[in-house]
Design brief:
The protein has about 400 residues and is α/β, with parallel strands linked by helices. The chain has two domains: about 170 residues, Rossmann fold (3-Layer(aba) Sandwich); about 200 residues, Dehydroquinate synthase-like, alpha domain (Up-down Bundle). The chain has 15 helices and eight strands. The chain has a six-stranded parallel beta sheet with strand order 1-8-5-4-2-3, covered by helices on one side. Helix 11 packs antiparallel against helix 13. The protein starts with 10 loop residues before the first strand and ends with a helix. Bound molecules: 5,6-dihydroxy-NADP and zinc ion. The site of zinc ion (ZN) has 5 residues, from helix 7. The site of 5,6-dihydroxy-NADP has 35 residues, from helix 2, helix 5, strand 6 and helix 7.
């Protein structure tokens, strides 16, 4: 196992009928800005309920944060916070609202363009540059990204999507009420199942380092998602099933399963370019890229693929190679069983899209991806050809 630090200060407030507790979670004298998305939280009445829970506190709202949030939107929110001297932010929505809020709370404490903060986002925004962030909490309405309990965000700028990390952007608290996800469109639930699954494989399907706890946590998340994936799509108001989905999404990307083990993330980084170029949902890009990537990288990942085959899919027959192939096929079948197509052509993309994605990756410096840094542009090309 590799050396690691594990740090996660986010307070999780899980379960139904807990909105009133916002009154104790949010500082009494805070001037609060509620950030939200395109309006789902207004239409469902959630914003009203939250405002009520906040009692007499001064509350302002900043809506219109779009999926795959843009730098420009963050800049507008930062200007609002600086003008109005807001001192606590409450993000209400899915990963996009929470991610945007993370850049916003850093940008609001930086005396310069928000773009500087985004550009300094990897490996992490230096505290010498941004020493503090405006504190914020979240009310999460979409189980997928894990953004409710991690220190990362993904922001769209120009023709790319760029990660930004900082330990200052762990939410102070995240309220995870599965009933708030009942209004999700079916498509977003499918995306959430796939995102959760692929966050787990990015940290599990690499090479063995005897991280037994991490492996078994990861296998538990994968098995749970396989068990409940279709059910949570087909029975959106089944509380217990959705509760498991919500908690799995959080645990899949809160540093726990990735501590001390190698991580891949190439599926995500290639997927981000597909979203930036063709506006495909994040979850869809992962369903396209992962099976193709596992096929191309089978030899390097063989030991973990066999472990995945045996422990997650209970495939006990055949050679190592056959087990790996069968597990990859099962993975694709799982995504397809949710009603999510796993080929580029299903989204009207052909060979020409491959060169565009490879070019974008090169322009963004993404030329050595994966746990060994050996997914070069040529390897990406091969992966995308497999994904056609
Ligand atoms: O904007 P509104 O009107 O709220 O509608 C949203 C949006 O259209 C809707 N929605 C959310 N909750 C709802 C709801 N509709 C009805 N009822 C509800 N309860 O769902 C749509 C999609 O929302 P979005 O926040 O974009 O989805 P998601 O949570 O999947 O977030 C995707 C973003 O997260 C990034 C992705 O790249 C993408 O930009 N990621 C962030 C990560 C992180 N911070 O750690 C890791 C991920 O790998 C991912 O890259
Ligand atoms: Zn993801």
């Amino acid at each position: 196992m590799f050396n690691f630090d594990f740090y996660n200060p986010t307070h999780i407030v899980f379960g139904k009928d807990r909105l009133a507790e916002l009154d104790t979670l949010v500082p009494k004298d805070a001037k609060i800005l509620i950030t939200y998305g395109g309006g789902s939280a207004v239409r469902s009445g959630l914003i009203d309920r939250i405002t009520k829970s906040l009692g007499n506190r001064k509350v302002e709202q900043f809506g219109g944060i779009e999926p795959n949030p843009s730098l420009e939107t963050c800049e507008r929110a930062v200007a609002f916070i600086k003008d109005h001297d807001m001192d606590f932010i409450l993000a209400v929505g899915g990963g996009s609202v929470v991610d945007a809020t993370k850049l916003i709370v850093l940008g609001a404490k930086y005396d310069g363009p928000v773009l500087d903060v985004l550009k300094a986002g990897v490996p992490a925004v230096p505290t010498s540059m941004v020493p503090e962030a405006v504190p914020f909490g979240t009310v999460m309405t979409l189980p997928a990204t894990g953004s409710e309990m991690n220190n990362g965000a993904v922001i769209t700028y120009g023709d790319g999507k760029f990660p930004v990390f900082s330990d200052l952007v762990f939410p102070k608290f995240s309220m995870l009420d599965p009933t708030l996800t009942f209004t999700l469109p079916e498509k977003q639930v499918k995306n959430g199942v796939i995102d959760t699954f692929v966050h787990t494989t990015e940290q599990y399907l690499t090479y063995p380092v005897d991280g037994r706890i991490q492996d078994r946590f990861a296998e538990g998340i994968l098995q749970t998602m396989i068990e409940i994936g279709r059910q949570t799509v087909e029975e959106p108001e089944n509380y217990d099933v959705r509760a498991n989905h919500v908690w799995a999404s959080t645990l899949a990307l809160n540093s726990l399963i990735g501590a001390g083990v190698p991580q891949d993330w190439a599926t995500h980084l290639i997927g981000h370019e597909l979203t930036a170029a063709y506006h495909l949902d994040h979850g869809i890009t992962l369903a396209i890229v992962l099976p193709a990537l596992l096929t191309v990288k089978k030899a390097d990942k063989l030991d973990k693929l066999v472990q995945y085959a045996e422990r997650v899919w209970h495939i006990d027959e055949g050679s190592k190679d056959e087990k790996a192939d069968a597990a990859i096929a099962k993975t694709r079948e799982f995504f397809e069983s949710l009603g999510v197509s796993t080929h580029l052509k299903d989204y009207d993309l052909d060979e020409t899209s491959i060169e565009r994605i490879v070019k974008q990756l090169e322009e963004h410096g993404m030329v050595a991806l994966g746990e060994h840094g050996d997914i070069t542009p040529d390897v990406t090309r091969e992966i995308l050809k497999r994904a056609l």
